[in-house]
Amino acid sequence: MTTELTLPIEGMTCASCSARVERALAKVPGVVSASVNLATERASVQADDGTPPAALTAAVVQAGYSVPTETADLQVDDMTCATCVGRVERALLSVPGVTEASVNLATSRARVTRLAGDAGDAALLDAVRKAGYGAHVAPIDGDAPAPASANPGLGDGWQVAVAALLSAPLVLPMVGDVFGRHWMLAPWLQWLLATPVQFWIGARFYRAGWHALRAGSGNMDLLVAMGTSAAYGLSLVMWAGDPGGMPHLYFESAAVVITLVRLGKWLESRAKRQTLAALDALRALRPDTARVRRDGGEVTLPLAEVRVGDEVVVRPGERLPTDGTVIEGRSHVDESLLTGESLPVPREPGERVTGGAINGEGLLVVRTGAVGAETQLARIVRLVESAQAKKAPIQQTVDRVSAVFVPVVVGVAFVTLLAWGLTQGDWAAATIHAVSVLVIACPCALGLATPATLMVGTGMAARRGILVRDAQALETLRAVKVVAFDKTGTLTEGRPRVVAALPADSDAGATDRLLQYAAALQAGSEHPLANAVLDAASALPKSAATELRAVPGRGIEGLVDGRMLRLGSTRWLTELGLEPGVLSAQADGLAAEGRSLSWLVDESADGARRVAGLFAFGDEPKANAAASVARLQALGVTTVMVSGDHAGAARAVAHQLGIFEVRAEVLPADKAAVVAELKAGLAPGERVAMVGDGVNDAPALAAADIGLAMANEGGGTDVALETAGLTLMRGDLALVAEAVELSRAITRKLHQNLFWAFVYNAVGIPLAAFGLLSPVLAGGAMALSSVSVISNALLLRRWKPAR
């Protein structure tokens, strides 16, 4: 059987391009024919059933073109264990046009990557429903409700209570035996109590188990349905064989197992709800309404009706409803839940504010810059959800184990039945031992161990101002041995200031005159050094410059008060044929301190040039940079500075911070090569991280094993959210060490959960097979296993960074 797939293709410009794509697609195993239409930019491929679209996409990319894709998020109901995850993923991957599907059991969400224009939402939902699960499209604006499976309702709770009430009398005989009393109920009464538990309370196990069988797989529900049905059926047979007597029946085993499993799933769902607490806290930051200026007055509108450009009035103590720029008022704003910054930050006209922050003591008027799904808060929520939807590498190994888990357990139960029956001749006991094997086996704990830990971990990180874009980055960060830092804006404040203004003249007004002339030349520039000059001269009278001309790589020149002035680099000074003169010694001293130098040259009407003065600029290290570097080094991490600045400035900053390895005068395009060189010097399994502002450091962030983009105030945030595996939401270098420590804590917790999940099954199944566990104990252990895994993951919320 063959299937026709249509692939959108970007980047083709001529007939030779389409022919090249056709040849690339034809080489993919399973492809029968491929035809590319240049006009529509689409390829029609006839391929054998089972040919993965991802292989076709990879062939097109390798040929030098791109296949546009899009993502869709689905909420999937009724999943109970890791095998359910595999079944839903296979169902989604069977939809033509789907290239990737990842299902998270802890969040009950599926993230699907599909070819643009293919595999519509209806087809995806239909595939999930045919696999036996409920599904609907999840909201995309960052305001998704909690998953149904993680929000236990009244129905589950009261069903568990009813099951417990019906099962309690069946357990009384075991309690009576302890006191030497015979409290055994009549067979008909046992049957009457157990039947509603088996077929009403336990109906979900039959439904889900049947869906699994129809799909050619198994799951936890199938194991419970088989085990309890065997105990219930055996009891009916034994009762029929001795209708007037008091035979030993196993109705209590069937009823109690169902009750315990339902109780366990209910407790599990409540615990899972707590793992989403960080996301819920972020969603709750956005108010429902906004006070907007309209037609000369203020009106309160639902947030959905606020538009970009609207002027929003925010009173003291209120949350900012939208992102925007302050146009009136001054206040302090608490952004702690967004950036992890514990202290309120001052905001005044012209400065940006983020929706969800709390306004302090003053009234603010904010011009809206982003609303709805485009706000920083919504994007942060989507980023956290995306990280939680992705699987860590170790989870892929767990999924492969889970795929064969149920068939293996059924096989062990069958062998247990035959072994006990043939060797002991007691087929009733043999059946009960086989039931114990079926009931104690728990793929749930395996399926929840990794995603539950990562959900808590990513939520913890988000609350501290560390946004995880890629779960793999969070897991890999624990193995970091080298952290490379960009200098400007990462290790330093990124705001140069004038540290020295030295005139060549010695008269009283020479310094002010020097600053006035330089400020006149720089008045229209946005260069950071120009801003430093303008700040230094802000209190002085203004002069105007004419005939301004920028000289690339050198500086700027223009007429000020009838004098031709030039302001630029030492290189330009040399090219103009000038020497520092009386400022030579001071210039050498400032250069040795790592200061950046600019010279002002004055040219008279007769063409004679002279050095009028010298400016030295400094970009101070961040207040906690040295402590943060020392903290990383204490964790066994080597720190390296990679900077485009000249060697003197880079080494001066590195010396202040305790960084011993410096790569200076590195162009942005060459930083990736430096990162590759650092990676080459490490042992297998050791990793390199790069920390930068996410703009000109993008190649290096991508080249590193883990990129950490620092979203400094006033810029870089938008790019940072889209570049690195982790984004630091404030310019605090302490977050780098915190991220490493948190990664190691998450990995330890993850390994603990996987260890106990595997050991539980490795020990429990043999004990049941050898007849050392009754079905009731097996059911209780199985119910507690997944609850214990989630509870252990929740202990991660107690983690605090070392200080």
Describe the structure.
This protein has 803 residues and is an alpha+beta fold. Helices cover 48% and strands 20% of the residues. The protein contains 28 helices and 29 strands. A seven-stranded mixed sheet has the order 17-29-28-27-18-25-26, sandwiched between helices. Strands 9-8-10-16-11-14 form a six-stranded antiparallel sheet, with no helix packed on it. Strand 23 (596-603) and strand 24 form a beta hairpin. The longest helix is centred in the C-terminal third of the chain and has 36 residues, at 734-769.
Notable traits:
803 residues; 29 strands; alpha+beta; 7-stranded mixed β-sheet; 28 helices
Q: How big a fraction of the residues is strand?
A: 15-25%
The strands making up the biggest β-sheet line up spatially as: 17-29-28-27-18-25-26
Rg from Cα: 34 Å
Shape: elongated
How many β-strand runs?
A: 29
- Count of runs of 4 or more consecutive helical residues: 28
Largest sheet: 7 strands, mixed
Briefly summarize what is shown.
The chain contains 28 helices and 29 strands.
Could you outline the blueprint of secondary structure elements for this entry?
Elements: E1 2-8, H1 15-26, E2 31-37, E3 42-48, H2 53-62, E4 69-77, H3 82-93, E5 98-104, E6 109-115, H4 121-130, E7 134-137, H5 154-178, H6 187-201, H7 203-214, H8 220-241, H9 251-275, H10 277-283, E8 289-294, E9 297-302, E10 311-314, E11 323-328, E12 331-334, H11 336-339, E13 345-347, E14 352-353, E15 358-359, E16 364-370, H12 376-389, H13 393-424, H14 427-440, H15 443-463, E17 466-468, H16 471-476, E18 480-486, H17 487-491, E19 497-503, H18 510-522, H19 528-536, E20 545-551, E21 555-560, E22 563-568, H20 570-575, H21 584-592, E23 596-603, E24 609-618, H22 625-634, E25 638-642, H23 647-657, E26 661-663, H24 671-680, E27 687-692, H25 698-703, E28 706-710, H26 717-723, E29 726-728, H27 734-769, H28 775-794
Parallel strand pairs: 18-25, 18-27, 25-26, 27-28, 28-29
Antiparallel strand pairs: 1-3, 2-3, 4-6, 4-7, 5-6, 8-9, 8-10, 10-16, 11-14, 11-16, 12-13, 12-15, 17-29, 19-24, 20-21, 21-22, 22-23, 23-24
